[in-house]
Amino acid sequence: MYLVSAAQMRELDRLTIEKYGTPGHVLMERAGSGATQALLDFFEQQPKRVVVVAGRGNNGGDGFVMARLLKKQGIACEVILAAKKREVRGDARRNLQAFSRLRGRVEEVAALDQLPAVEKRLERCDVIVDALLGTGLNTAVRGLQAALIASMNASGVPIVSVDIPSGLHADSGQPVGSAVEAALTVTFGYPKLGQVLYPGTTQVGQLACVDIGIAPQALTEVAPQIHVLTRREMGGQIRTRHPESHKGDFGHLLVLAGARGKSGAAVLSASAALRTGTGLVTLAGPQGLIPIFSSVLLEAMTAPQPERVDGSLKLNVRVLSQTLHGKSALVFGPGIGVSAETNRMARWLLKNSQVPLLIDADGLNCVASQVAMLKTAKVPVVLTPHPGEMSRLAALSTADIQAQRLEVARQFATRYGCYLVLKGARSIIAAPDGRAWINPTGNPGMASGGMGDVLSGIIGGLLAQDYAPDKACCLGVFLHGAAADIFAQQHGQAGLLARDVIDNLPDTLRALSRAGQVDAQDAYDSDILG
Predict the structure, then answer these.
(1) Residue 15 CB partners (closer than 8 Å, separation 6+)
(2) What is the mean pLDDT of the chain?
(3) Which of 198, 224, 250 is the last residue of a domain?
(4) Of 224, 243, 267, which closes a domain?
(5) DSSP letters for 435-464
(6) Do the domain assignments include residue 524?
(7) pLDDT tens-digit readout, 248-263
(8) Boundaries of domain holding 87
(9) Mean pLDDT within 91-105
(10) pTM recorded for the entire structure
(11) Which of 272, 234, 231, 298 is closest to 384 using CA atoms?
């Protein structure tokens, strides 16, 4: 599912109308009709009274269509217009007049002293339709519009926002002054970036997307590069297994990880890879940890590596080359520590690895001091930083990273030719060619130790199974969050452990695979797409 900026959506509309011949009033009618149906589907009982709070632009025009269609359904519906009727122009005016011809009530509100009467009507209705401000908003909401937003939010009545909650920036997801807190947002054409990024997603409520008939040729011309992952799409990526398959058909992952006191990170990563369906996993680490690895993870093979006096890895090129022989992917970094030796190891792997390389945790901190080395890799490289690690990689503050997560991830991936997974609420996957994906799965229960090690094993295991790097990252991130969501639904978020996610992986893979094979409504998609 594509995600678009406000400017891209405007261009899609313009091309569809001006170049490919669909009149604007037809698009508005489709938008209002789809939003009306989404409203009726959202509530278990049909509302008896609806108030549409509308502006004078096209967003208000969509609201006027809804008012007319709701009134035709026998629902008492009135419009509060934050403008004079004479100020409404174009297609919006056409639909305001159509509502008026049905003897629909339209009250012009132009001054703050009219708010008490407006607030009483808001409190008496069953549903508020927010059609005040659209996706073109760039300046802070003030005055009457801000007061109307505050009144809607304070009413205690569920709000259905048209296209976007009024006051929310369509690209950043940041409230521009103040913003409506919607129970349901019905967006048109394609979801907007700010609707699936925090904090915007908390303002949106459930998000439904209405197809208004944007011309396919217009989509080709605009060529959006950002997507939101859906369960059906991710389920469709999961491969079926041939009855005559054997373990050699599903790859051999090498996990190079661990140091004294950090054996758990290595075991979690390798365990996750096995639970993701990887045929063979070899866990390589300091020689002193091999007995721990062998006793805890019976299904993995082990490969002892030279170690320093402190129990951390020591680079021996001959041994490491032998260990890499015959593997189909490599995970490097969980629990290895940061030292001159591990820094050298990171450099050597980037220059010499012949198989896809995923770098995580301490491996990322080794790369941070020599980030230009990423360009020397001859194979796909995947980095999986959390915001703190991304801060070191990009030489930006964590606050700056969090304020512009999508831009930072895309710029870094294109600059250094790598695949990057920026972890966190709504993790972002970025590819070297500028494409990016936003992941909707996961929950706050995942804020516990070892979750990142599990993700590195999942993605590494998919790389070993010969999934393309972009598909391995997208499916891996979605699967990771979905497995955690299933646990949280059953047991709650507090106390969710990394090993709980690992244990849930087979069931989650099965559920995703089924979702990819059937044309049905899906729980994860409904959170994002309605």
Answers:
(1) 215, 217, 218, 221, 222
(2) 95
(3) 224
(4) 224
(5) -EEE-----GGG-STTHHHHHHHHHHHHHH
(6) no
(7) 999 999 999 999 999 9
(8) 2-224
(9) 97
(10) 0.92
(11) 272
